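Design request, tokens follow.
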């Protein structure tokens, strides 16, 4: 198989452009119908949880454990010790591990059944929740809940923001967990109809072009003077009619002459 040049690749594209476009339209249409008719909507809400060791945001003025004023930084009416910040940062991986584990969602499911109209299995809550990467600059861990409606996503997130601080503080003595007061919005995460349809169109074009490419490179039939010249690297000077079968056809066939003399 000869090396394929860029020009030949472009020729394949041009010759099969209509088929490629049709393939893209079919795939995009199929993806659109699938997203709109067969995919359930999903919405995601988020809440922020602030992690401290108990010495930050206590609203008690200056930290009594900080005896050296050089180790504190003033922020409003409170003084925050550098050691408290370091301790809080060290707590972040532990808090994230708790929020990602199964036990918290088992107790959260019980909390929901007692304090709301929602009755979720803990496995459903665990699969719906995603814990974001902890931010050491703000000591915040973000928790996401993805559910089937905006109201559900917001309600479950708000219930979790009320439940999680108490649960975590009971597991880690001396810690203080503050949550964002309220979650009031959710974003649609599925189906992503436009994005999916676009990717399907790209995939359809790629498949159609690949098939056309394979057919071209494995096709050994000479269909034109250009095919002959390309394959044998010999210029075609002209065509010699084949009169031997002209009596069976109104249009005579021709034989290729690569530049040699006709001895007939």
């Amino acid at each position: 198989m000869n090396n394929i040049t860029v020009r030949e690749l472009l020729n394949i594209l041009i010759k099969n452009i209509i088929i490629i476009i049709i393939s893209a339209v079919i795939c995009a249409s199929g993806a659109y119908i699938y997203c709109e008719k067969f995919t359930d909507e999903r919405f995601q809400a988020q809440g922020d949880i602030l992690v401290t060791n108990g010495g930050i945001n206590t609203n008690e003025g200056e930290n009594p454990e900080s005896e050296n004023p050089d180790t504190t930084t003033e922020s409003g009416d409170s003084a925050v010790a550098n050691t408290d910040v370091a301790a809080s940062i060290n707590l972040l991986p532990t808090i994230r591990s708790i929020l990602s584990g199964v036990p918290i969602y088992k107790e959260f499911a019980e909390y929901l059944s007692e304090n709301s109209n929602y009755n979720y299995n803990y496995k459903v809550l665990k699969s719906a929740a995603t814990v974001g990467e902890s931010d050491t600059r703000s000591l915040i861990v973000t928790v996401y809940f993805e559910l089937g409606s905006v109201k559900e996503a917001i309600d479950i997130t708000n219930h979790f923001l009320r439940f999680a601080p108490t649960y975590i503080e009971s597991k880690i003595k001396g810690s203080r967990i503050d949550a964002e007061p309220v979650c009031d919005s959710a974003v649609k995460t599925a189906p992503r109809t436009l994005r999916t349809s676009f990717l399907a169109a790209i995939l359809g074009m790629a498949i159609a072009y690949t098939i056309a490419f394979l057919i071209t490179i494995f096709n050994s039939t000479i269909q034109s003077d250009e095919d002959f010249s390309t394959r044998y690297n010999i210029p075609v000077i002209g065509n010699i009619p084949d009169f031997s079968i002209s009596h069976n056809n109104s249009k005579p066939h021709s034989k290729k002459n690569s530049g040699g003399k006709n001895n007939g």
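Comment from the thread starter after seeing the answer: thanks! The helical segments are 6-15, 17-38, 82-100, 102-115, 122-128, 150-171, 193-217, 225-232.
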